[in-house]
Amino acid sequence: MPAPLVQLAGVSKHYGDVRAVDSVTLELEPGEFFALLGPSGCGKTSLMRLVAGFETPDAGRILLDGQDMQGVPPYRRPVNMMFQSYALFPHMSVERNIAFGLAQQGMSKGDIATRVAEMLRLVKLEGYGARRPEQLSGGQKQRVALARALAPRPKLLLLDEPLAALDRKLREETQFELMQVQRDLGITFMLVTHDQDEAMGMAQRIALMRAGQIEQIGDARAIYERPRTLFAAEFIGEINLFEGEAVQIDGARFAIVQGGRRIALAEDDSPVTGSVLIAVRPERMVMSHLHAGSAAEFEGTITEMAWLGDLTIWRVRLDDGRLLRVSRSNADVANAVFTRGDRVFVGFDAHSVRVLPK
Amino acid sequence: MQNNAAAGAGLPARLGRRLVLIVPYVWLILFFALPFLIVVKISLSVQRDGRPPYEPVFELGDGLVALWGGLQKFSTESYAAIFADRIYADAYLSSLWIAALATLCTLAIGYPLALAIARAPRRWRPLLIVLAVAPFWTSFLIRIYAWIVILKDEGLLNHALISAGLIAEPLHIYATQWAVLIGIVYSYLPFMILPLYNALEKQDEALVEAALDLGATPFAAFRQITWPLSVRGVIAGCLLVFIPAVGEYVIPDLLGSSDVLMIGRTLWDEFSTARNWPGAAAVATVLLVVLLAPITAYQRSQLQRKGAGR
Amino acid sequence: MKPGLSAGMLAVLLAGFAFLYVPIGLLVLYSFNSSRLVTVWGGFSTRWYVELFGNEQLLISTLTSLEIALVSASLSVLLGTCAAYSLARTGAFAGRTVFSALVYAPLVMPEVITGLALLLLFVALGIERGFWTVVLAHSTVGMCFATVVIYARLAEFDVALEEAAMDLGATPAEAFRLVTLPICAPAIAAAFLLAFTLSLDDFVLASFTSGPGSTTLPMRIYSQVRLGVSPQINAISTLMISAVAMLLLAAHLLTGRSAQK
């Protein structure tokens, strides 16, 4: 295991009474694509600015490649940032923008020209060097910002909502390009975003943040499939919730939900007991016109449906008033039989369930 | 979010940052705030013949005893004179009246013009606003002079009207308060147009269209949408015209006769003709007190705009 | 793009611009009048311009005014840039309200008050009035205008640009020099022009604060105007108006080029 590139130990930052970052401890491996994900105001931006050196922590230490960054100003840190607004210098050409950091390092003119050409090739903007930022499209600006931040070969690249300003189509394309660039250069990327798709699509590991603290760290699949808290479950993706009581009967675990039904729980579920929430993803729900006879089955009526091309979403109003969400891939031709007003039975099996503390 | 970039910077950078603030700050205190204290101080001293033409009340650095002695020598003579002689009160009131009237006229001319520029095709707007403000860049005196040439009894206006057969006798506008009014409106118009244009140009044109779409007449749309949204610009423009106009000296001196009383002129006469410096200082102090409310309002409106802009 | 102007708006524009420009146009026209009477057209002539250049006093005053304007505009921009930067970038500081009050008050303060106050200051401090006292007076008012102009630019300026520069290895001073300053250059140029024009144009402050030997052009013009209408003044006016027109045109072309899309 290589030594971590970035180490945050108990880092805190307050603004007045607000704890923007609350004793965060975190490690990033060299060459990793890492994402800080969270709603606005969760402290992810503050955390990133602490790493970049634009803010100083009130407590805790930030180590970069083993070196303590305490008192090191942003312009002496081997960290570069891709700004959300791109922050391209409007009075400089694309070339001069990319060359800016290199010139600051005191690189020779010839080397700068070589590196700039290399970066332009990397972001597929050959021939655009003489343009002004205002003559570029949004996607092109984004690439220049990336090239500029990468040109000085930082040890760590911070990306602040890098795709936020792009339209949907361009977003996916750029996402794959960013991943490729990251793999090719082997530079550690730290992505900051509020968009789950952005984080899940690109990052190898995601730190989900909430109120200045890290709620859960893991790869996208782990956070989606095995959220540890209600917040994590609800922030990423959609979720159906059932209130219940977790109990142990003859060595097997059950959840007793409304109406006294006993729902079997799989063994690998988190060992939460007492008052719990049973969480099931919409695509894990099973829907049928026929009663299958399982305990984890509820009867209701389809009130809405939305056909989205790749999948269809139904909203089912249960007879006890609760609203569930069911989704299925449209690869299944059987989807067509479920329409608004249908009486249906929706349920799930034990392996699809996640038990969360209430 | 606070900008803590300087936190990592060394001592020289922090010192530089400090100096960048302190130099202009001290400059303004020294050459703007301090002089007003001296004005107040001199308004409380007694006129005399000599250089300077006032009895020094106290000198800085004379020590506390002298200061106390000086305080006892304070004289309210100049203020008593201002309140005793009706001519001062008349001058203040007529200044306020003329300035208020001029402000209203400037608004009445400036608003439609600013609105027309703000609703012109987008590519014409920069040129039009430059043209509207350009006269401000030419000499103020020359613009006033132009109106002397036009308004004099034997001037261009009367000449034109008489040759056109519209009037038989020349109109007496020059050397009346109407000429002063025209002069103020003309020379301060750019100060009105600019904040109005800024307020109106920012407005989304779709707002008025939405109002019309919802059944408002053009006038109702103006009254309920355009006007309320531009009130801030109206206030800024009016204060920008009104405050300096109250203390205007050049315009009443060149376009008005001695009958047109304005306090700026009274101050000037006190100062240069009568060589009564304490008197002039007292006139200035009272004028400042009168204008304190509008000046504060202006500052507040500017600070608010700043707050909204961030 | 919306269709052109409505007829009403067009009429307003024409009337408004006529009001603004007819007086100036008449001045220019009659500067080429050979007749001494301002109201009677006596044929085209440039005699008043020739007379003007023989007026040595006037030329000396013009030079004085230009010198004062140059020095005070430079000072205004220097101080104004500092003040604007402090207001825009230094978060909260003690006396911020006082500071902004001090910046905004001179913009509207009647000149007779400011002039008298400065005069009394100079007298109290025993400073001989002359070239430099006028410069001081003009710089004080000019810096406030400069501050407002430059502040407007800094306020809409994306702080991320400075941060990006520092992130890429520029020290705060370098970031200011390489990024902030060039981007604010048009505003600084505009502030300089404004302060320069204000100084060149000022009569009231100069009359309070100037001494013998530092009579400015507006003071000269003023005393002539008080004596009565004279075609020579029309000629000076025309020269000044053309100078300003050319300056504005140059500024427009300069900023237009840099802002070209």
Mind telling me the C-alpha Rg of chain B?
25 Å
Which fold name is given in CATH as the topology of chain B? MetI-like fold
Which two chains form the greatest contact, residue counts included? B-C, 95 and 93 residues
Question: Average pLDDT value of chain A?
Answer: 90
Overall body shape of chain B: globular
Could you tell me the number of beta strands of chain B?
A: 0
What characterizes the major β-sheet of chain A? 6 strands, mixed
The CATH superfamily of chain B is known as MetI-like
* Secondary-structure element pattern of chain B, one letter each: HHHHHHHHHHHHH
Q: Give the DSSP E fraction of chain B (strand runs of 2 or more residues).
A: under 5%
Question: Which strand order do you get reading across the main beta sheet of chain A?
Answer: 6-7-8-3-9-10
| Secondary-structure element pattern of chain A, one letter each | EEEHEEEHHHEHEHEEHHEEEEEEEEEE
The total tally of domains of chain A equals: 2
How many alpha or pi helices of chain B?
13
The level 1 CATH classification of the largest domain in chain A is Alpha Beta
